[in-house]
Design goal:
This protein has 140 residues and is an alpha/beta fold. 19% of the residues lie in helices and 29% in strands. The protein is built from three helices and five strands; from the N terminus they run βαβαββαβ. It has a five-stranded mixed β-sheet with strand order 4-3-2-1-5, sandwiched between helices.
Length: 140
């Protein structure tokens, strides 16, 4: 899948933590997930499987964070697992440090969700297909 495009709005939507956290098996807290964005930890199954599981539970979007809590800068390409699973909701990847901070803040404050704003108007093109200006290719 070279290009995925979607336009909608995620203003003032709720972010809830998936149960189970890895979202590789059916979601247990579907009453919280339905209609909301879901925070999921990376690992144990493919990105596509995680998003599919959340979509079947009624999620409107998925935020996957790296399972390395000390990851402060490395982003990961969320690749297709080539199983042909249709995905109809947006998903994104954030660094581990940010994901762990969000999850811990919810837990520390005994909150079931957080209000987030996710502007969704994006087109995804794999990095190797992006046309970059000549200076971006220089190794300085």
């Amino acid at each position: 899948k070279a290009v995925v495009s979607t336009q909608s709005t995620g203003e003032h939507t709720l972010l809830v933590v998936a149960d189970p956290l890895y979202a590789c098996t059916p979601i247990l807290n579907t009453h919280k997930v339905a209609g909301n964005f879901v925070l999921v930890e990376r690992g144990e199954c493919s990105f596509v499987e995680k998003v599919s599981v959340c979509e079947r539970a009624g999620a409107s979007g998925v935020i996957i964070y790296d399972n390395a809590p000390d990851n402060r800068s490395n982003l990961v390409a969320m690749v297709d697992d080539d199983k042909g699973t249709p995905i109809n909701i947006p998903s994104l990847f954030i660094i581990g440090l940010d994901g762990f901070h969000i999850r811990r803040a919810l837990e520390r404050n005994s909150l079931e969700s957080a209000i987030i704003n996710v502007p969704i108007n994006m087109t995804y093109v794999p990095e190797h297909q992006i046309k970059k200006p000549p200076w971006a290719k220089l190794n300085l």
